[in-house]
Specification:
The complex is a heterodimer of chains A (about 280) and B (about 600).
Chain A: E1 8-17, E2 31-41, E3 46-50, H1 57-64, E4 72-77, E5 80-81, H2 82-87, H3 90-96, E6 97-100, H4 114-124, H5 130-143, H6 160-173, E7 178-182, H7 190-207, E8 210-215, H8 218-224, E9 227-232, E10 235-241, H9 242-247, H10 252-260, H11 267-272
Parallel strand pairs in A: 3-8, 3-9, 6-7, 7-8
Antiparallel strand pairs in A: 1-2, 1-4, 4-5, 9-10
Chain B: H1 3-23, H2 25-42, H3 80-116, H4 118-133, H5 136-147, H6 151-178, H7 181-188, H8 193-229, H9 241-249, H10 257-284, H11 286-289, E1 301-302, E2 319-330, E3 333-345, E4 350-354, H12 361-367, E5 377-386, E6 389-390, H13 396-402, E7 407-410, H14 414-417, H15 424-435, H16 440-453, H17 459-462, H18 472-484, E8 490-494, H19 502-519, E9 522-527, H20 530-536, E10 539-544, E11 547-553, H21 554-559, H22 564-571, H23 581-588
Parallel strand pairs in B: 1-5, 4-9, 4-10, 7-8, 8-9
Antiparallel strand pairs in B: 2-3, 2-5, 5-6, 10-11
Classes of the chains: A alpha/beta (about 280), B alpha/beta (about 600).
Chain lengths: ~280, ~600
Amino acid sequence: MMDEPNAIAVTGLTKTFGGKRRLFGGTSHVVHAVKNVTLALRQGETLAIVGESGSGKSTLARMVVGLETPTSGQMKIAGKDAGTLAKEGPRAFGQMIQYVFQDPTSSLNPRKTIGATLEAPLRLLKGFDPARRKTRMKELLDAVQMPADTLERYPHEFSGGQAQRIAIARALAAAPRIMVLDEPVSALDVSVQAQVLLLLEDLKAEFDLSYLFISHDLAVVESVCDRVAVMYFGEVVEEGPVEALFKSPHHDYTKRLISSAPLLETGRASKQNMP
Amino acid sequence: MSATTKLARQKSRRKTAWQLLMNNRLAAAGFYIIAALVVLVLAAPILPIDNPDTIDLVGRLQPALSDGHLLGTDHLGRDILARLIWGSRVSLAVGLSASIIAAFFGSLIGLVAGYAGGRIDNIMMRGIDMLMAFPYILLALAIVAVLGPGLMNALYAIAVVNIPFFARNIRGITVGLAHREFVDAARLSGKSHTSIVLTEILPNVLPIIVITMSTTVGWMILETAGLSFLGLGAQPPQADLGSMLGEGRSLLFTAPSVSIIPGVMVFIIVMSINLLGDGVRDALDPRLRAGALNRPLPVTRIDRSDRSETSASGKGAALSVENLQTGFESTQGIVPAVKGISFAVQKGECLGLIGESGSGKSVTALSLLGLVASPPGVITGGSVAIDGRDIFSMHETEIASYRGSKVAYVFQDPLTTLHPLFTIGEQVAEAVRTHQPVSRNEAHAKAVALLDTVRIPDPAKRAAAYPHELSGGQRQRVGIAMALANDPDIIIADEPTTALDVTVQAEILRLLQALRQERGLALLFITHDFGVVAEICDRVAVMRHGEIVETGNTADILGNPQHPYTQRLIACVPRLGQGKAFLEALRQLPKVEGV
């Protein structure tokens, strides 16, 4: 074992939706979103979770940050038991781990200024006084390379890439050690996506962060992640270092995923030979 | 940005809502009438009018315009003008306070039920349902009967009766907001549930509360008058429009003015408030402001300053676009979205139109058959030729006949383009019957055959399935089947695989490729993904800010891009196998602003 505990360690994590007794007989339809998942994110690394829509990636991520309660299984955040953290309230969770949503514009309240949105975690999670909050907000905007007048403006005044920078700044405000990035670049244009990926890489080094990076784009995963776990119908079917796993995938689904990824140069030639 | 400019911007925003309201003449009239009335009743104590309760039995039932009594006197000799002004004061105050009380409690119930969901929602809403199950005037009567007659009790009764109206409206909006990502984000920022409801959700439902209030105040005044008319509201000698009507009722034939005057007053108040309320709703409701009530024209408005003729290279092409210009009308004139682009697609060829969001690629696709919503869309120049014929010179009905028969569209999200209440078989058959005079059975048989063409397994059985029973990939196959229904020459596919998983995307691309080769289709493929372009397109045109910056064979453009914009875009696409070298390569790129 390493001297520092894993950033995230989940054991036998399961989440089931539905299955409750209805008022007038019968039970509702049961969905096994996440089935018996065991994973570890080491301190300082980036672990990717790939899989198609409905494979349970987002449910897993929402459980890890405390937005969903697991049906069963163990979850440890930076060595502390998540159940104990949850009892301490949302604050305890928020100080440890933060979440960046896929759609940047819908993760910002349309009727609040960016300043009001950024202030909440500083006030509630860090307990800063107003003067300190102000300087910290300026620092955060600097970190994500946004101008200072951003604070007085409303979300609809920003493009998708700018909104995602603001969302990242909000997540950083709590000064967490761990960030869960749920498809942080898939709603963005390629040139903007590239800028945000660079930003995430810089921030990771600057604030000594660990990333849980959820994505369906294998090329993006390969460029920013150390290890990758493949989810399929709620289960982790394969896990390993990025290069090794992409070079020699074992599970059928992983193979299919890699062969389906559109390629720039050799795209057509290779595809036409496929069955 | 300084605080003053921020203030100026807020002011300008408020001004636009106000201007919208005043542009609506009926609403403006309602506003001025009600404002004048409010000033009048507020000034009642200082106006030179008689005491409304002074009884003068000698001078009873004097007609209007008599000496000292402008509107005459009632059966006890009280001045009607004075009673009218004081009565309107009471009616307006009661109506407004009842509506504020109902809005407060109704919104509170709606917010809590909508945010909490589950059992709490169920219990609260069933309670509201029980309130709604009573005829409302009967319920108000029952409440007054229990509490005893009196103006305050009537106010409570009316407020209670109207709570469900607010609760249901607000709950509906809140349910939608409670699952939005910004609410989750607020939870992760450490906010408590109470604070989320009050500071995150409430600001978003406030316009709806105001709209609902403005449309119910008139009703509440009417209901107050109704209860007073029945003797359950204001008690004598207090003046109130409803009780004045009630007292005048028995004298309707001997002295009609005693009851007609308060009746007209009720009419004026309620009418002007309703007109104003409708105006407020139109000005504040974002859906109405976005033009949800505007019916778009059947074909985009065409107002061409130049009609570029099809060039020699375009002759013989399946689709040829010359100097196409499309813009959107705004208060500052026409804002161009497509600025004079030209391209041609040959039979059996696939042309990729690639660009980032806002580059005008979708507007281009919709312009080809005049499908840009108009207003505000307008085609300002250029020509589109299909088989050598200029589309924009044709009559509306002729353009419409091209849609789906000669040229078919496949859109991004098949879940929104398919009708949820019809089976996929019916929808494909409908596409067939729109352009072909075939019987219902023949159309169905053709639909099944089409579903087979797009490789849907067991098509005869699956034809009876509804869109929600299919996976995303299968729904997109149905979309393609509908596009193929009338053997089009050209298919325009607007980001057809963007909403799909990569494995499914690969299957759909293979299907499109095979169909194109089998049928010799011309395919215009719109996408933002260079990988997809590499898979399927023969040639590619790169769009930026409404212009085509570079056109050429796919391999040439991807392998050796000439324009700096294309070079940059391609450099920003990570490639499988490139690994961490990708980020290093990105750092070498020159910086650009505005990202």
